[in-house]
Amino acid sequence: MKPRLVFYAICLATAYLIGKAAGVALAPAKGEFFREVPKWWTRQALCVHQFEGSWRDPDPPYFGGMQMDAAFMRRYGGWVLARHGTADRWSPRTQLLIAWRGWKVQGWAAWPNTARTCGLR
CA-to-CA distance for 52 and 114, rounded, in angstroms? Predict the structure, then answer.
């Protein structure tokens, strides 16, 4: 391998490891959604979605079909927020993936009333 290519490979590997250590979320690979989000949770989240806004809801302070606020979007989907804007611009699958990542940390606390309506709390 040429020295320059080795240098770039080392830089990329180092940046990747630093990002992982810092907890920086990287964009999901194609098909990651189905490996990461269980079907049972998706059914529950779709119940919550029924009582929230449209997938394209642009009204602040909550955006999209899972009604995510700015702090939630930044914390669990910062890379998508930076690249595509607020959740109302994301696909429903992406919104569910980010909601799942938030749910793994805080449960249904981000959706207290609708989760209660769905019998999840």
Answer: 7
**What is the dotted CATH code of the domain comprising 30-117?**
1.10.530.10
pTM over 0.85: no
Beta-strand runs (E) in the chain: none
- Could you tell me the end-to-end alpha-carbon distance of the chain, in angstroms, rounded to an integer? 57
Tens of pLDDT along 4-49?
555 555 655 565 556 555 554 444 444 445 568 999 999 999 999 9
Strands (E), 17-119: none
User: CB neighbours (10 Å) of residue 93?
Assistant: 14
Domain boundaries, the chain: 30-117
Residue 63 phi/psi, 5-degree rounding, is: -125, 150
Burial-class residue 84 by CB neighbours within 10 Å (0-12, 13-18, 19+): middle
